[in-house]
Structures are given as structure tokens and as C-alpha cells.
Design brief:
The protein has 13 helices and 14 strands. By secondary structure, the chain is α/β, with parallel strands linked by helices. The structure holds S-adenosyl-L-homocysteine (SAH) and iron/sulfur cluster (SF4). S-adenosyl-L-homocysteine binds next to strand 10 and strand 12.
């Protein structure tokens, strides 16, 4: 039995055709599930009884279990339990332009970034498509609201789970499902070059964010082991190619770590690194965790860094802090539960 929330419309059409039903039944089924929020094939009254029976024999409507929900004015944080008892989290941010959900893509992460809670908890497995789709559907249902933006910045490295992530995007972007616009979806990666190359050929206008965090290989390799396999000297040309081919603007994420990567020299080196690219830099206040030694930059150091980039004509923004009180950074809620 497969979970129906993880089936792309194309996969559903193939299933229908191979069982001698009509391709357009897939649109009808999608409308029942995603627009009318029906969780029972028996209630899909415009499908033949025969088809309902076959669907019942092949697909389940299993959901994720919500085991914790913290909330304040700016954010809601959810901890989910998966069918094999693993835990993942999602964070809803309340923006003036809408609701943005940060979802997990794996249980844990193998990239081992020095500053990150998710990397401290090694990857157990990839998330299935339905486990990503259901983070959205269940948050919408619990809070009775419509999520307008989705960012793949929770636990995990999306490009280490490439096929499921693309299938997931195909599902949520489908006009017959929740129809989340591709420009409202952002994938964040630590820089897996082969996947970035594949993504360059992907036909949807999904946003790409690169976790940069350092302006040179020496420092980046210390913070992010992935940089040893895919150093900046190889990554930057691939990103330039991505921008050229897709005509899209790239985001660089840069966490501000006190005394580590927030110096004036780093700012100048960073400006040089991204010069001439259609990209902007998002400076992220570091969310301190009890397990990891890094400290967050002071407001003054962040402003100084920002000013240097501005003077060098680099597009730069400072990310608003969300839910740090809710332990909202990557993996933090889950890591508390792991320790009981
Ligand atoms: N693995 C992907 C996506 C998930 S991490 C990636 O690394 O891009 C999403 C973002 O959160 C990354 O930019 C990551 O560096 C950042 N991050 C991790 N731990 C953080 C923390 N404690 N405070 C602030 N940002 C953090
Ligand atoms: Fe993984 Fe991203 Fe955390 Fe690095 S920052 S360990 S890639 S989740």
C-alpha cells in the first residue's frame, strides 16, 4: 500500500491507465484530496464504485502524528512523529505577506556542519514525498490557514534526497492540488554540485538558496565538511551557470558567527566572491544552541558587515529572527526530544 499524499499526478495517471481507467480521474482524485480535503475514497462520488475499490486496495490516507506544538505571535513550531517513530519538525513563520512553512526533508543530516543541530544528529533516512506534503497539509488543518510559501530549510539536506524533493514540489505545485506557486517555493542546499547541475535543468521556477557561511575555502571547509568535496572554486562557476541558464536570482545564506566569519576582512572577501552575480546575500543571526560552542554576532558587528557589503554594491538583507524563543533553528526541538 502506498500513501496517496506522496503520489504525483503523473504517477496516479500511470496507475489509472494501467488499470484501464481514465487519465482525467487523476484530476478528480486530486481535487477531492487537496481541495475538498476528503480522506476517504468512498466519499469520492464522481468516481465509479469499481475505481473507488481499486484505490482503496492500493492507497492509504495515513497522516503524521503531531506530538508537540509551540507557538508565539511570530511563529508556530510543530514536532511530528513518523510511522517508524522517527521525529521531524516544521516551523511556520507569520510574515506580513503570508505564512511561510519551513519543512524538513530528511531525518537528521549527514553534512555535519559544525554549527548545526541537524548535522549533530546523523541522517537516519530520507523523507518520503508524502512526509513532506503532510507537513504542509497538517499545519494548514491545525491552524486553519493557507500556507503561501514553503522553504526547504528544516532538518536535512534537500539535495541529498533529490528525487523525493522534486516529486514533492511537483505535487504541491500542481494546479489540481494546493497549487503552491513555484516562485513561492525555496530549496536551500549546502552546495551539492551534481544536484545543483540537475536542478539547473528543472523546468519549474523554484528559488534556490545556497548556504555559503564563509568567503573562502579554508574557513568554509572548517564550518562545512561538504566544502572539501565541493570547494568554492568548483561551486561558484556552477552557480554562475545556474543563474545564466535559469535567469533566476540566487540567494546566499550567511550565518553570522561571532569572531568566526563576521570580520571586516570576511565582508570584503565575500563582496569580491559574489561580485557581478545576480544574487543577494541574506545575513542570518545565528540561533545559539546549548550543544554547540558558536556564539551569535552582536548587532554592531552585523551592521558593520552589512555596511561594507552595501558599499561594495552587493545586494544584502538581514534576516528577521523567527521563533528563536521557540527553539526554531534547524533541528533544535527534535534534539531536545532525542535526549528525552
Ligand atoms: N541543509 C540545507 C537546508 C537546511 S539548513 C542547508 O544547509 O542549506 C537551512 C539553513 O539553516 C542553512 O543555511 C543552515 O546553515 C541554517 N542553520 C543551521 N543551523 C542554524 C542555527 N543554529 N542558526 C541559524 N541558522 C542555522
Ligand atoms: Fe545539514 Fe544544512 Fe545543517 Fe549543514 S546546515 S548539517 S547541510 S541541515
Amino acid at each position: 500500500m502506498k500513501n496517496i499524499y506522496g503520489v504525483t499526478r503523473l504517477e496516479l495517471e500511470e496507475f489509472l491507465i494501467s488499470n484501464e481507467f481514465k487519465k482525467f480521474n487523476a484530476s478528480q482524485i486530486y481535487e477531492w484530496i487537496y481541495q475538498k480535503k476528503i480522506e476517504n475514497f468512498d466519499l469520492m462520488s464522481n468516481l465509479s464504485l469499481n475505481l473507488r475499490e481499486i484505490l482503496k486496495q492500493n492507497y492509504t490516507f495515513n497522516k503524521l502524528e503531531v506530538i508537540d506544538h509551540l507557538s508565539d505571535k511570530m511563529a508556530d513550531k510543530f514536532l511530528f512523529r513518523l510511522s517508524d517513530n522517527e521525529k521531524i519538525e516544521a516551523v511556520l513563520m507569520h510574515h506580513d505577506y503570508g505564512y511561510s512553512l519551513c519543512i524538513s526533508t530528511q531525518v537528521g543530516c549527514n553534512m555535519g556542519c559544525a554549527f548545526c543541530e541537524s548535522g549533530r544528529l546523523k541522517k537516519v533516512r530520507n523523507l518520503e514525498k508524502e512526509e513532506m506534503v503532510l507537513q504542509i497539509l497538517e499545519v494548514e488543518e491545525i491552524l486553519n490557514l493557507k500556507i503561501t510559501h514553503v522553504v526547504l530549510m528544516g532538518i536535512g539536506e534537500p539535495f541529498d534526497n533529490y528525487d523525493n524533493v522534486i516529486g514533492f514540489i511537483d505535487i504541491i505545485n500542481d494546479p489540481k492540488s494546493i497549487a503552491l506557486g513555484s516562485r513561492h517555493i525555496t530549496v536551500s542546499t549546502s552546495g551539492l554540485i551534481p544536484a545543483i547541475k540537475k536542478f539547473t535543468e528543472y523546468d519549474k521556477q523554484v528559488n534556490l538558496a545556497i548556504s555559503l557561511h564563509a568567503p573562502n575555502d579554508e574557513l568554509r571547509s572548517k564550518l562545512m565538511p561538504i566544502n572539501k568535496a565541493y570547494p568554492l572554486s568548483e561551486l561558484m562557476p556552477v552557480l554562475k551557470e545556474y543563474i545564466k541558464k535559469t535567469n533566476r536570482r540566487l540567494t546566499f545564506e550567511y550565518i553570522m558567527l561571532y569572531g568566526v566569519n563576521d570580520t571586516e576582512e570576511c565582508a570584503k572577501e565575500l563582496a569580491k566572491l559574489v561580485r557581478g552575480m545576480n544574487a543577494y546575500i541574506n545575513l542570518i543571526p545565528y540561533n545559539e544552541t546549548s550543544h554547540i560552542e558558536f556564539k551569535k554576532s552582536t548587532q554592531e558587528r552585523i551592521m558593520k558587515f552589512y555596511d561594507i557589503l552595501k558599499k561594495e554594491n552587493v545586494c544584502v538583507t538581514i534576516r528577521k529572527e523567527f521563533g528563536s524563543k521557540l527553539k526554531a533553528a534547524c533541528g533544535q526541538l527534535r534534539s531536545i526530544y532525542e535526549e528525552g
